[in-house]
């Protein structure tokens, strides 16, 4: 790579890192972090011919409909989130997916559902947490997409400049363990239940390659990570909520293949079904 190309690469990397959904660290090489490797010759999500499956919703006898808040990430003052490979602002993607998920959960009749952000409203994170607690919510799912790794300038046809990075795909479910028991255990149980069902549905868990120093992989399930940001930079909805709350990073928004899959009805349907069953699992008393 020429010196000019190196400089361009660094500039682009800085631009994307500054716009990232969550704080960045340098890509590490950590053998402790598991990397999901597909079998040779078997295409894995998000390859075009792979499929995600809508899991059937199974309710245990006597299941009582929990109160669930679906939080569309970002959309607060001066916090739009970064742009995807399609140049879509993350706050717009998050709102679209949160609305879709909320509607599907409501249709299942297994949950009482509220959205924390609607239309053009831009409530603060503090207000969202306070409203969820006042309602007596039993779970809060904050919907996001992620931008990971150094990216390159992509086609301008979507109104860019926007950036592309096809590696580091997959979902991540994030939680914080800064609370006392039983809230810590409830947060972890929710995160693990969701991640296991997402994997079962065919979504691939993120390896965590770019999370070094900011999230720690929870060995309880692939794709689950614990907030390890320095004090003052921790994720508000994870660390300052008094009910079990998780962030679902749905996918790598800079990946053209994965972002394309998230434009498909089948993806939204399978995602909602997996989340629904994960919520049921987390709210089913353990034997
Ligand atoms: Zn985000």
How would you characterize this protein structure?
With 287 residues, the chain is of the alpha/beta class. It has a single domain (67-282), classed as 3-Layer(aba) Sandwich (Aminopeptidase). 32% of the residues lie in helices and 14% in strands. The protein is built from seven helices and nine strands. A seven-stranded mixed beta sheet has the order 2-1-3-9-6-8-7, with helices on both faces. The radius of gyration is 18 Å and the shape is globular. It starts with a helix and ends in a 5-residue tail after the last helix. Zinc ion is lined by residues 21, 73-74, 81, 90, 144.
Core attributes:
binds zinc ion, alpha/beta, single chain, Aminopeptidase, 7 helices, two-stranded antiparallel sheet, seven-stranded mixed β-sheet, 9 strands, disordered N terminus, 287 residues
Percentage of residues in DSSP E strands? 5-15%
From the spread of the alpha carbons, the general shape counts as globular
Small molecules bound in the structure, each named once: zinc ion
Total individual domains? 1
**Based on helices, strands and strand pairing, what is the structural class?**
alpha/beta
CATH topology: Aminopeptidase
Nearest-integer average pLDDT: 87
For CATH, the homologous superfamily is named as Zn-dependent exopeptidases
Number of helices: 7
User: Can you tell me the residue ranges where pLDDT is under 50 for at least 5 consecutive residues?
Assistant: 1-20, 22-36
Strand count, sense and closure of the main sheet? 7 strands, mixed
Strand arrangement, major sheet? 2-1-3-9-6-8-7
The CATH class, by name, is: Alpha Beta
* Name given to the CATH architecture: 3-Layer(aba) Sandwich
Q: N-to-C SSE series?
A: HEHEHEEEEHEEHEHH
């Amino acid at each position: 790579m020429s010196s000019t190309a190196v400089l361009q690469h660094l500039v682009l990397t800085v631009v994307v890192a500054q716009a990232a959904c969550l704080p960045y660290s340098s890509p590490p090489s950590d053998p402790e972090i598991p990397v999901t490797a597909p079998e040779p010759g078997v295409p894995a999500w998000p390859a075009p011919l792979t499929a995600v499956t809508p899991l059937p919703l199974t309710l245990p006898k006597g299941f009582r409909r929990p109160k669930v808040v679906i939080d569309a990430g970002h959309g607060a003052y001066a916090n739009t989130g970064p742009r995807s490979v399609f140049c879509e602002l993350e706050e717009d993607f998050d709102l679209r997916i949160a609305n879709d998920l909320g509607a599907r959960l409501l249709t299942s009749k297994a949950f009482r559902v509220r959205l924390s952000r609607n239309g053009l409203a831009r409530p603060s994170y503090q207000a969202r947490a306070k409203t969820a607690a006042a309602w007596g919510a039993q779970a809060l799912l904050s919907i996001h997409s992620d931008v990971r790794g150094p990216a390159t300038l992509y086609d301008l046809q979507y109104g860019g400049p926007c950036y592309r990075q096809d590696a580091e795909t997959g979902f991540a479910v994030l939680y914080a363990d800064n609370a006392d028991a039983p809230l810590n255990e409830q947060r972890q149980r929710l995160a693990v239940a969701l991640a296991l069902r997402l994997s079962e549905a065919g979504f691939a868990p993120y390896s965590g390659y770019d999370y070094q120093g900011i999230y720690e992989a929870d060995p309880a399930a692939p794709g689950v990570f614990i907030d390890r940001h320095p004090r003052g930079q921790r994720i508000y909805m994870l660390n300052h909520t008094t009910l079990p709350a998780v962030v679902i990073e749905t996918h790598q928004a800079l990946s053209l293949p994965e972002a394309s899959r998230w434009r498909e009805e089948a993806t939204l349907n399978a995602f909602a079904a997996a989340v629904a069953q994960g919520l049921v699992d987390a709210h089913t008393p353990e034997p």
